[in-house]
């Protein structure tokens, strides 16, 4: 069991967005080791079919299991929405998504029962947030909006560019004029645009980033299953991608609170 306790946590996403979840895990569980995989060769997931997203997720989970991870966080809303239920029973490891923690946080945050959700095409068209929110509180109204250009803007480093403000206005003008009092950032890339979205939407909207809730759920699972790492020193993080390692590393170093020394490319289709 001691070996299991020292084992790393696997985290994956379609690209750099999942780093927002890793950042939160390192804050809440600083002693845990992490193995991260960003599927940079196949980003974005939001425009892909359900079948492909399930296949991609299976390949990545198989890769992470070669690193002997003790739990896996699917730090991608699209994969959480479309693949988590399909792959959960395939693998003998705790699997955690980001949708349920995010939905729960929004239900707790709203005062008027009107919640907005922004995400990829695939996440929005799955209506997974609406389903989960209404399971928790049936009288809540959910307004969903797909924002497919947000992911490439983040991946290409355009978060501070003027064009991003125009695209935010294009996607969110109807929500800004609505009665929602809470908005879920339903894609792990979107917290990297949080300050721009906050400025546009105004201070009266509660913005929910599911990363914190996901980290807290992970903490609870590790405690319940007696898998918490007993070490008192800072955990170690390893980073793997399917393409463009240097670009990923450069971006990651602007997001993470510590320096990333190396990022390795994996031929993920082999798994």
UniProtKB/TrEMBL annotation:
Alphabetical list of Pfam families matching this protein: Asp_Glu_race
UniProt-listed GO biological process terms: cell wall organization; peptidoglycan biosynthetic process; regulation of cell shape
Annotated keywords: Cell shape, Cell wall biogenesis/degradation, Isomerase, Peptidoglycan synthesis
GO molecular function ontology, one term from the record: glutamate racemase activity
EC number of the protein: 5.1.1.3
Record PROSITE patterns: ASP_GLU_RACEMASE_1 (PS00923), ASP_GLU_RACEMASE_2 (PS00924)
Signal peptide coordinates: none
The reaction(s) this protein catalyses: L-glutamate = D-glutamate
PANTHER family (UniProt xref): GLUTAMATE RACEMASE
Family to which this protein belongs: Belongs to the aspartate/glutamate racemases family.
NCBIfam families to which the protein is assigned, alphabetical: glut_race
Biological role stated in the UniProt entry: Provides the (R)-glutamate required for cell wall biosynthesis.
Protein name as it appears in the record: Glutamate racemase
Organism expressing this protein natively: Mediterraneibacter butyricigenes
Gene: murI
């Amino acid at each position: 069991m001691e070996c299991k306790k020292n084992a790393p946590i696997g985290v994956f996403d379609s690209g750099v967005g999942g780093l927002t979840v890793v950042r939160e895990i390192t804050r809440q569980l600083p002693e845990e080791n992490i193995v991260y995989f960003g599927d940079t060769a196949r980003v974005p997931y939001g425009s892909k079919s359900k079948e492909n997203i399930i296949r991609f997720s299976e390949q990545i989970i198989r890769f992470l299991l070669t690193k002997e991870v003790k739990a896996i966080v699917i730090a991608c809303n699209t994969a959480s929405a479309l693949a988590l239920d399909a792959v959960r029973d395939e693998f003998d490891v705790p699997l955690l998504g980001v949708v349920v923690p995010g939905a729960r946080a929004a239900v707790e945050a709203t005062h008027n029962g009107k919640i907005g959700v922004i995400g990829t095409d695939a996440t929005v068209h799955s209506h997974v947030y609406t389903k989960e929110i209404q399971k928790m509180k049936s009288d809540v109204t959910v307004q969903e909006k797909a924002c497919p250009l947000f992911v490439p803007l983040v991946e290409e480093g355009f978060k501070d560019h003027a064009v991003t403000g125009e695209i935010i206005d294009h996607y969110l003008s109807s929500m800004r004029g609505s009665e929602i009092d809470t908005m879920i950032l339903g894609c792990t890339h979107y917290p990297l645009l949080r300050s721009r979205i906050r400025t546009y939407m105004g201070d009266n909207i509660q913005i929910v980033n599911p990363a914190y809730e996901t980290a807290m759920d992970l903490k609870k699972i590790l405690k319940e299953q007696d898998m918490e790492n007993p070490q008192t020193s800072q955990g170690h993080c390893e980073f793997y991608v399917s393409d463009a390692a240097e670009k990923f590393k450069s971006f990651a170093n602007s997001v993470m609170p510590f320096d990333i020394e190396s990022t390795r490319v994996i031929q993920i289709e082999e798994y």
